[in-house]
Design a protein that fits this description.
Blueprint (H helix, E strand, L loop, with lengths): L2 H30 L3 E18 L4 E13 L2 E7 L1 H6 L5 E7 L2 E5 L1
Antiparallel strand pairs: 1-2, 1-4, 2-3, 4-5
Length: 106
């Protein structure tokens, strides 16, 4: 085995290990981690519409995004249409979230 092959194997292993650790961290933060609650202000909301081509089904998909201002930082969450339609810009309340998952806003 040549030294270049060894270097490429080490780099490949390091890359796969980094990706695996990143995915595990995200899964832990979004699904296993503790729920957070904080005072927040809804500063923006928008929808994007994109066409998705599938093997058996194709069509347009709407993604609803809410942007909150929490403790000097902004957080973006993808939400269902009910939460999107119910909330208005400038609304203040308690935001409940877990990682990058939106839970509730009252």
């Amino acid at each position: 085995m040549d030294w270049i092959d060894v270097i490429l194997m080490v780099i490949s292993f390091a890359f796969l290990l980094t990706v695996t650790i990143g995915l595990l961290h995200r899964a832990f933060r979004d699904y296993v981690g503790k729920e957070k609650a904080a005072e927040a202000k809804l500063i923006d909301k928008y929808s994007t519409r994109s066409f998705r081509q599938g093997k058996y089904q194709s069509g347009y998909v709407t993604t609803n995004i809410l942007v909150f201002y929490v403790k000097g930082r902004t957080h973006k969450f993808e939400v269902d249409f009910l939460a999107y339609d119910f909330l208005e810009k400038g609304q203040l309340g308690i935001l409940k979230y877990k990682g990058s998952r939106y839970i509730d806003f009252n």
